[in-house]
Amino acid sequence: MAVKKDFKRADGRKAEDARPMTAKVGVIPNADGSAMFAFGDTVAIAAVYGPRKLHPQHMQNPTKAVLRCNYDLLSFSVGDRKRPGPNRRAQEISKAIEWALSPVVDLSLFPNTVIDVQIYILQADAGTRTAGINAASMALAQAGIPMTDLVCSIAVGKNDTNLIVDLSKGEEDFEEGEGATDFAVAKPANSSSFSLMQMDGKISPELVPEATKLASKVCEEIYEIQKKTLKDSLLPSEQEKGAKK
Ligand code: CDP
What we know:
The chain is an alpha+beta fold. It contains five helices and nine strands.
């Protein structure tokens, strides 16, 4: 089944369109690296600390650093206030983010240390793990952690039988026909392999290649945004330019 070209979504997007994407680095000056990434109303920030000595000592790995990711939704990020503190969902997403990022980070250079990646969702309208991965990848790069690539992440899925990209919360809750499927993926930008595939719902095997093709196309757009944002952050600001005159 091909993506329906005439299929219009509630917010006017075409099936293959992500929500407007925005990104910024250096949003948390005290961190070693930080970034914000948004898909429409979903806003994630990530802060990187380290590499620094890992305590307690028995958790250290003498051959490489430990990449420790912590994801959470802030209480005010969702319509109904979320109870503060970690829960099973946050633990699972933290682990998934760790797996998504690990293939591109050269951990062997920093034995016995930890690189902490804190990811918080300021505003949630579905796609929070994907926005979090995009932000974390930029934050790691800004922190100067040696990486072989940037990781890009997007959700594809289905509303009834229509393949769509970057589901909003309304689309994730769609119940008509076959209902909704949310298929979150992440991939190193310059690789053809995926470092994360997580599905909530059902999709027939013959649709998977088309879904991953759609995801890869949006990952290319995300990669360009990530690169441009990181490069622009190295240029002198208008204020710094003024001070030099
Ligand atoms: O956010 P993501 O799609 O990666 O993960 P999810 O577990 O499928 O959550 C989908 C959406 O449900 C979130 O983005 C939030 O908008 C919403 N949600 C919520 O309102 N309250 C929660 N405690 C958890 C999720």
